[in-house]
Amino acid sequence: QGAISVANGAKVIINGGHINGPEKSSCSGIYMYQPTVAGAASSVILNNGYIYGYLYGVTVLDDCSFIMNGGEVSSHGTCLLNNGSIAAPSTMLINGGKIIQLDNDNPAIFHPGIGTVILSNCTIIGGTGIEMRAGNLIVNEGTKIIATYSTIKEKANSSGATVKGAAIAVSQQRKKLVSSLMMVNSPDIVHSIKRMFKKIQRLLWQK
């Protein structure tokens, strides 16, 4: 599942070094499991260092939390994501560092499941910066979100990414989970903010 897999209440702190998932693989650099022990939520704190996964950088599932205070997460696919099927909310707290999608073709952060993403003093770069299909997003001062795809494109996708070229995309998930977006004191968001409403996303709910 990952170069490092974290489960069942484990707490991991990374202060430096390189964590690399295998090339041409669907393994994550770090994969955080849904807990199998009631109340045992896992967490990873990245203070510095580098995490890379070919398709997925860091995967955060049920009730787990990823806290990034510095360093870098990168991927040719999606750098930071949860899953639309999780039963308990995940937490992604990014206080610094860089999240960089390497191919300019996918979202740097993809959030199809319940949970919260909080961004402060960090840089997010991807074909789309962030796509929220469920959950809550808070963007605080000092955050730069940069979309690198050359234009804005939309496509129907039942559970995957639907937009290219938006700094922030908000599109309802096929399961009709609730999305909300709150932005606080962040003048540095670059390129565009794209909201896609229910009426234009009916195709996404079709299999």
The total of beta strands comes to: 23
Task: Provide the low-confidence segments as ranges.
Answer: 191-207
Order of helices and strands: EEEEEEEEEEEEEEEEEEEEEEE
- Specify the overall morphology: globular
Q: Strands of the largest sheet, in order across it?
A: 1-4-7-10-13-16-21-23
Percent of sequence in beta strands = over 45%
Please count the helical segments.
0
What labels describe this entry?
single chain; disordered C terminus; 207 residues; 7-stranded parallel beta sheet; mainly beta
SSE blueprint and pairings:
Elements (H helix, E strand, L loop, with lengths): L1 E5 L4 E4 L3 E3 L7 E5 L10 E4 L3 E4 L2 E5 L4 E4 L3 E4 L2 E4 L8 E5 L3 E4 L5 E5 L3 E5 L3 E4 L1 E5 L2 E5 L4 E4 L5 E2 L8 E2 L3 E4 L7 E5 L9 E4 L11
Parallel strand pairs: 1-4, 2-5, 3-6, 4-7, 5-8, 6-9, 7-10, 8-11, 9-12, 10-13, 11-14, 12-15, 13-16, 14-17, 15-18, 16-21, 17-22, 21-23
Antiparallel strand pairs: 19-20
Task: Give the gist of this structure.
The chain has strands at 2-6, 11-14, 18-20, 28-32, 43-46, 50-53, 56-60, 65-68, 72-75, 78-81, 90-94, 98-101, 107-111, 115-119, 123-126, 128-132, 135-139, 144-147, 153-154, 163-164, 168-171, 179-183, 193-196. It has 207 residues and is mostly beta strands.
Task: Give an overview of the whole structure.
By secondary structure, the chain is mostly beta strands. Helix content is 0%, strand content 46%. The protein has strands at 2-6, 11-14, 18-20, 28-32, 43-46, 50-53, 56-60, 65-68, 72-75, 78-81, 90-94, 98-101, 107-111, 115-119, 123-126, 128-132, 135-139, 144-147, 153-154, 163-164, 168-171, 179-183, 193-196. The strands form 4 sheets. It has an 8-stranded parallel beta sheet with strand order 1-4-7-10-13-16-21-23, with no helix packed on it. Strands 2-5-8-11-14-17-22 form a 7-stranded parallel beta sheet, with no helix packed on it. It has a 6-stranded parallel beta sheet with strand order 3-6-9-12-15-18, with no helix packed on it. A hairpin with an 8-residue loop joins strand 19 and strand 20 (163-164).
